[in-house]
Give the backbone structure.
Amino acid sequence: MEPKSSKLRQEQKQESIEQTGAQENARAFSSVEEMLREDAATNSPPPALAHRVADSIAREPKPARSWWQRIFPRRSSNP
Amino acid sequence: MASPIAMANPVHGDSSFVSDGPRRAKAGSVSPPNTAPVEGPAGGRAKWTSPEFGEIYEEHSRQIYYLALRFLGDPTQAEDATHDVFLKAYRKLSEFRGDSAMRTWLYRITINHCKNLLQTWHQRNMLSNADDAIWEGAVAGTENPLRVLEVKELGQRIQKTLAALPEEYRLLLLLVADERLSYEEMAALTEQSADAVRGKLHRARKAFIAHFHKSA
């Protein structure tokens, strides 16, 4: 009986370790929005995308200035 | 009851469209094929011919990419879509009148672009929309926190859950996750009243939670 009991204790200990590990990795969210925000924070656009967009824009003709830009021309931030 | 969307549009993790070669929706996209991403020198910052537009990209690209990623369900398509959205925005910058926030304006372009892509994809595959009533009647234990065992599985389960929801619910949930958007701005983007947005969001959250539990 002793070896069987020892094996049972060992299995229980292993199970407990696995549960603890799972709890450490587990994450609970109080709302759908919170979960989606966490997901958004871990999904950044690839860094190469900025270069791709910048390259495409460099090949574009310069866009016309909008009406508000024509009326309120950009002022230098330095006085 | 089986979900029509889940059967018609199965999602396997974050790359459902990738493994789906013949069904990929490329029509309507104005981007060049994303086969050779342009890497900057030593991964440095992009060189913008228009620094102002570079600032716009830096400020909004994360949210635009995320909306495209979860709306389309595929990182490659999301990258192409984000590229196309910012290119369109650059071309139409003179039309931006400043009576809405830049973020809202970019969201409008993104939503239209992604819907066009999905429509083309659905038409090609003759898929039908899900019955909203299935999700409106969903009973969810809202007192239970949304729990995932591994953080790494979060993205896959969110994608799977969103893919099973009606398109309108998916869009509203993705928009409400952006804290910078008001209900009024969401209403304008989805062409309905703010009260309608609130009501549908309530049902969308319940549907999301119900399906999220099922996806475990």
DSSP finds nine helices and one strand in chain B. Chain B touches chain A through 58 residues (CB under 8 Å).
